[in-house]
Amino acid sequence: MELPGSVAQRRLGRELMKLRLAAELSRPKAAARINLAPSTLGRIEGSIQVPHRRTLLDILDMYGASTETRAALLALRERASNREAGGWLEPYLEDLPPAYADYIGLEIDAEMLQVCESVLIPGLIQTEDYARAVLTALLPTATASAIERRLAVRMQRQGILSGEEPVRYEAVVDEAALWRVVGSPAVMSSQLRALINLGSNVKLQVVPYGRGAHPGMLGSLVIVKFRDTEAPDVALIESAAGHLLIEESGALSTYHATYKRLQRMALSRKDSVGLIEAVVRDHERKA
C-alpha cells in the first residue's frame, strides 16, 4: 500500500490535472510528449506519487504554465516531498483499511477536526487502556500483536493534539458513550477523568439522553479543515461497512449542517464536564 498523500500532494495533483484539461490533452497524449508512462502521470495527478523536480518542470513546460503557476506548483512539490510528519505510519500501512490510512495522512495536515461519536469516546482522546479494549472488541479475530500495532497507530495519532501547533479539536459525543463500560469500570473511570482534563485546544460536548434522537446516531463523522486554506474540507464516515472519505462539496455541506445541529443539541462545554463528573462517580463506585 502507498503512503497516503498529503494535502500539498493532493493539491498538486489536482492543479496538474486542471492544466492538462485546459491544454485539451488526454493523459496518454500528454504523457507521450514528455516520454512519461500514462500510468505514471495518472499516479501524479491522483496524488499517489510526487513527481521528480525535472519531471514536474517538463510537465509545466508542456502546458506553458505561467511564472506564478510554476513557482506555486514547485513549492507544493517541495512541501509534499519534505513531508516527514507522516513517515511514522509506513510500517503500519498493511494493518489499516486504505481509506483509514488515507485519512490519517490528511489528519496530519489538519488545522481543525470536528468529530461526532454516538457509541464510543473518539479515538484521539482515548486513553491507552480504553483504546486497547475498543480495538479488542472491534477486531475479535485479530492477533494480540495486530491489536498492539493498531493501538500504536492510535496513540501516535494523538500527538497532533499537543506540541507547538496543536490541532484544534471539537467533539460531540452521545451520553451513551459515557455510560457504556468498555474494558472495566476502572478503565472507564480513568477514561472519563482524562476527558475532564483535556487541553484548551480541545472542546468536548455531550448530547444528553434527554435530547432524544439525533443525526449523529447513524455513525461516526470527522470533518477535516486544513491549515492550507485553499484545500477543501474532507469528511470521514465510519460505519459497520467500513471507512469512506467524502470530498464532494454537496455531501460536505450536508455533513457541516449535521455537525452544527449536533453542537446545538449538545450541552455546553461546562455542563458537559458536569455530566461527565456525575457519570465517572458512578463508574468509580463500581470499580
Observed structural traits:
287 residues; alpha/beta; 6-stranded mixed beta sheet; 12 helices; 434 Repressor (Amino-terminal Domain); Endonuclease, Chain A; 14% strand
In the sheet with the most strands, the strands line up as 3-2-1-4-5-6
In terms of structural class, how would the helical and strand content be classed? alpha/beta
What's the total count of β strands?
6
As a percent range, the share of strand residues is 5-15%
Low-confidence stretches: none
Distance between the termini: 43 Å
> What is Rg?
22 Å
Order of helices and strands: HHHHHHEHHEHHEEEEHH
Can you tell me the overall shape? elongated
What is shown here, in short?
The chain has 287 residues and is α/β, with parallel strands linked by helices.
Structure characterization notes:
- It is a single chain.
- The chain is an alpha/beta fold.
- The chain folds into two domains: 7-81, lambda repressor-like DNA-binding domains (434 Repressor (Amino-terminal Domain), Orthogonal Bundle), CATH 1.10.260.40; 87-286, Endonuclease, Chain A (2-Layer Sandwich), CATH 3.30.870.
- Helix content is 50%, strand content 14%.
- The protein is built from twelve helices and six strands.
- The protein has helices spanning 7-22, 27-33, 38-45, 53-63, 67-81, 98-107, 128-138, 144-157, 176-179, 185-196, 249-265, 269-286, and strands at 110-117, 168-174, 202-207, 220-226, 234-239, 242-246.
- Strands 3-2-1-4-5-6 form a six-stranded mixed sheet, with helices on both faces.
- A hairpin with a 7-residue loop joins strand 4 (220-226) and strand 5.
- The chain is elongated.
- The mean pLDDT is 88.
